[in-house]
Amino acid sequence: MGSDRFDVLREQVRGQVIEEDDAEYDAARLVFNGMINRHPAAVLRVSQVADVMAAVRFARGLDIEVALRGGGHSAPGFGTVDGGLVLDFSARRGVRVDPAARLARVEPGATWADYNHATHAFGLASTGGIVGSTGVAGLTLGGGIGYLSRKYGLACDNLVSADVVLADGTFVTASEAENVDLFWALRGGSGNFGVVTSMEFRLHPVDMVHIGIIFFDATLGAQVGAAYREWIAAEPEEMGAFLGFHRGPPVPFLPEEWHGKPVAVIAGMWTGDLDAGPAHWQAMLDAGPVLGSFFAPMPYPALNIMFDGLSGIPGLQGYWKADFLRTLSDDALRTAVHYAPGIPGVHSANHFYPIDGAVQRVAPEATAFAYRDVNFSPVIAGQWPEPSENEKNIAWVRDYWGALHEFSEPGGYLNFQDADDQSRIEDTLGSNYARLAELKAKYDPDNFFHVNQNIKPAVAGAAQAAVPVQQPAVLQAEAVPEEARQREAAPPDANPAEGAAT
Predict the structure, then answer these.
(1) What are residue 244's phi and psi, to 5 degrees?
(2) DSSP assignment letter at 20
């Protein structure tokens, strides 16, 4: 089992295969979360769909695990695996925009900064993440909450089709017209059903937006939060803004004496008429003594990358927890205020994202994302630079989550969960879990794709260990369809943003 075992793979792919003795190995094995220190046997920097098909068959034949890395933001470090093969899509970041049809075709390594850069050139957008360095594919497969959720639904609600390499190495397209059950599962079922090699999104007219950021003393968080709860419910869906608890960042519109101290913040954007924007923020300016604020009309992508310097830094230690809240109750707000003094540092955050409006106009059974009747999705995102602080800061995240969970729903937003949340998977997928387990048995009966928040195959597969086997079932002809070849050959209409994927 020496390194020559990957020579066969090298002969079958166009992408670079990197092993432990290669100079690039240490850089290639790293993921966004600096707490994750795994050593894969090899990293394949994917060049095209054919690489993925070959790699999946190769890994099954060698009986090794496979991890999928798109943007690489996975807090649990699901983009890597000890002793296995990592499929790294960081070189596949193209975004092809069809402005007439209002569609965008996206490669699996693209980040939301890449996506927004490309679509904004045409005055278009769809729901993406809060941080620009987050991967498009991973966020979408887990649901996809963002600033535009109230107006245009989740990222997965805007997904039109996806190209997928299945567990036997065959290629399919999933949409409302073909492989409909797989398309249903992809929209909230995460990476359990195959390797997504291309995604197509529906776009909406979003150009300049009115951005607002308002800081308050965190001790007033219950008062401010109660005002926010009433305000966001009454605001038109063009308002997308979250309530957060932070340590004051070093920004010019927050007095220096508040830098590093616990603060509450309202942040987001008004996507309606720009001249009407200021009036829509007034109720929150009246919610309590304001420490500092910033308002300005800006391009939508500017907001999406605004916090990358705090939360989008690769290499920070990270540990996350999440829930769903039917309402932002007074008890939940008091809990947030109680734990605010323990926020690990300026890189950490506790946010409460609104998921009403368009999100709730989709039936719970219409996609795999089942929590369509809750109003908020809280995340406790602990991030800090020093490994020596891990034990203390992980304890703070866990203690806070334990207290908040008393007022929450059983499940939580999958994209905000950590590795030790695997035991919550049935609660997280809620009423759709049984159907997802059945589809897992259909598309991945041996649980080959299990380096994720894992759905066990139903019936006989449910009792099996999460290990690959040698003989996958053939689900479809093995050739890549001509349409996929054309997508591979076509250059993007707009260049993706500069910068390395993580």
Answers:
(1) -135, 160
(2) T
The 10s digit of each residue's pLDDT in 296-322 is 999 999 999 998 888 878 899 999 999
User: Residue 422: is its pLDDT beyond 70?
Assistant: yes
Q: Which residue has the tokens 């999958």?
A: 414
Q: Are 219 and 481 in contact (CB under 8 A)?
A: no
Asked if 148 and 201 count as a contact pair (C-beta separation under 8 A), the reply is no
Q: Which long-range contacts (CB under 8 A, 24 or more apart) does 278-286 make?
A: 278/210, 280/210, 280/235, 280/236, 280/239, 281/210, 281/212, 281/214, 283/227, 283/231, 284/212, 284/214, 284/224, 284/227, 284/228, 284/231, 285/214, 286/227
Amino acid at 460: A
Q: How far apart are CA 156 and CA 170, in angstroms?
A: 23
Which candidate, 64, 62, 58, 33, places its Cα nearest to that of 46? Answer: 58
User: Shortest CA distance to 207 belongs to which of 124, 150, 97?
Assistant: 124
| Cα 325 from Cα 339, distance rounded (Å) | 17
What confidence tens digit (pLDDT) does each residue in 17-39 have?
A: 999 999 999 999 999 999 999 99
pLDDT average, residue stretch 242-262:
97
- Neighbouring-strand partners of residue 66: 85
Each residue of 59-75: pLDDT tens digit? 999 999 999 999 888 99
C-alpha–C-alpha distance, residues 326 and 375, integer Å: 5
Cα distance between residue 65 and residue 465, in whole Å? 13
Q: What is the mean pLDDT of residues 485-500?
A: 38
Mean pLDDT score across all residues of the chain: 91
Q: Among 84, 86, 145, 81, which residue's Cα sits nearest to residue 112?
A: 145
382 contacts 396 by C-beta, under 8 angstroms: yes
Going by C-alpha positions, the residue among 387, 404, 267 that lies closest to residue 334 is 404
- Partnered with residue 165 across adjacent β-strands are 171, 195
Full-model pTM: 0.90
**Distance, CA of 135 to CA of 325 (rounded, Å):** 25
10 Å Cβ neighbour count for 144? 29
**With the C-alpha atoms ordered 329, 330, 336, 338, is the resulting torsion angle positive or negative?**
negative
Band (1; pLDDT cuts 50, 70, 90):
very low
